[in-house]
Design a protein that fits this description.
By secondary structure, this protein is an all-alpha fold. The protein has 16 helices and four strands.
Length: about 400
């Protein structure tokens, strides 16, 4: 079978949903839902998230969903795809990740790479440094900045793949044969490492030591942040840790904000912008990522219907804020009241949390970070790229 045929058939091959309940890292999808309105909304803001992204992609020159196509069409990854096919019929979470990346386009909006391209175009070339004027530029974006956007997406995708590793020690018979899970883990490790290796190779080709340092530190932050998440949520008796909102912000920046923030800063470095412009790009990426993560955390609490009773993390923003308002003792009491036969009734607990102040406070926090992201854009000249960056913030911070 040719690679083209494989890519065409892969959505059908990966049409199996469901995953074991116990993962080494829980692979939450970065989805955004735009509902309601916000008092700070611009009249230029489109009504739907997909429309925001579609219009932004036109500005940067091509759909970012094909950003990593050169890597996806490599012989090595085609071999990995054939191995992933062997997992069809099992419950390994790598299938869910692969299907989301290849087939479910609404989950495949490559936000990080798109933001890097948009902020590159919004900033434009440096007016004080002419050393990169001879670089290739397409649609107002240097080729090296496009490469950086690809690298950012490769790193993020590699992390998603690695997050699908199953904790074999906690498997039950209902999760399927152990050999299938072991095989899936091997493929997840190898494919994630392959993507990271390609990202590192692309970084070396940029020939900019500061950019390499920035992305290397972002990767270190990612690992540290996910390790912290894993240490507080890997076991049932650890998911009620009193981390507090300050610790949550620090942890969330490491695991979700550092990559985008430092990639935006690196894009400015490639265009030889000064430290002030680099810092503003960093601030936009940081606060945009934080707002995006809080929006994702809020979805189980603002959706009218939720088919899965366990769709939120007890260390997500609304829960952490709810716990802070309530106090540690009362929070533990609510946890115990929601337990039935030793297992937590997430549907019951969700209604309890929605009745408190955690959800509304998380919405306010999401908008706070959105406003900080907009403030960072004020130093950039008015342009369609800047408007697209603003519209992304508006879409993420809109709630009913």
């Amino acid at each position: 079978m040719s690679l083209r045929q494989l890519l065409l058939r892969l959505p059908r091959y990966l049409g199996v949903s469901g995953s074991p309940r116990r993962l080494w890292w829980s692979p939450f999808l970065d989805t955004v839902s735009s509902v309601g309105s916000w008092r700070g909304q611009s009249s230029r803001s489109p009504a739907h998230w997909n429309q925001v992204v579609s219009e932004a992609e036109k500005i940067v020159g091509y759909p970012t969903s094909f950003m990593s196509l050169r890597c996806l069409l490599s012989d090595e990854l085609s071999n990995i795809a054939m191995q992933v096919r062997k997992l069809v019929g099992t419950q390994h979470p790598l299938l869910t990740t692969a299907r989301g990346l290849v087939y479910e386009s609404r989950h495949n909006l490559q936000l990080r790479g798109l933001v890097v391209l948009l902020i590159s175009k919004a900033a434009g070339p440096s007016s004080t440094n002419a050393s990169c004027q001879n670089y290739d530029m397409v649609s107002g974006i240097y080729s090296c900045q496009r490469s950086l956007a690809e690298i950012t997406e490769l790193i993020h995708t590699a992390l998603l793949v690695h997050r699908g590793i199953v904790n074999l020690s906690e498997l039950q018979s209902s999760d399927g044969p152990l050999k299938d899970m072991q095989f899936g883990n091997k493929i997840a490790i190898l494919s994630g490492d392959f993507l990271l290796a390609n990202a590192c190779n692309g970084l070396a080709l940029l020939r900019n030591t500061k950019v390499v340092e920035l992305l290397a530190s972002a990767l270190m932050d990612l690992v540290q942040g996910v390790y912290r998440e894993n240490s507080t949520s890997a076991k049932e008796n650890h998911i009620t840790e009193d981390i507090g909102i300050s610790a949550w912000k620090e942890q969330t920046f490491l695991s979700h904000g550092a990559l985008l923030a430092k990639s935006c800063q690196a894009a400015m470095e490639l265009a030889k912008h000064d430290a002030d412009v680099q810092d503003m790009a960093f601030q936009y990426g940081k606060h945009m990522a934080m707002s995006h993560k809080i929006n994702s955390d809020l979805q189980p609490f603002i959706k009218e219907k939720t088919s899965d009773s366990r769709t939120f993390n007890l260390n997500s923003a609304p829960v952490v804020l709810h716990q802070e308002f309530l106090g540690r003792d009362l929070w533990i009491k609510q946890i115990r009241e929601a337990q039935e036969k030793g297992r937590l009734d997430y549907a019951k607990l969700r209604e309890t949390i929605k009745a408190g102040k955690g959800v509304t406070s998380a919405i306010d926090l999401c908008r706070y970070h959105g406003n900080k992201a907009l403030e960072a854009l004020e130093s950039f000249p008015p342009s369609e790229a800047r408007s697209a960056l603003e519209n992304i913030v508006f879409a993420v911070t809109r709630f009913s």
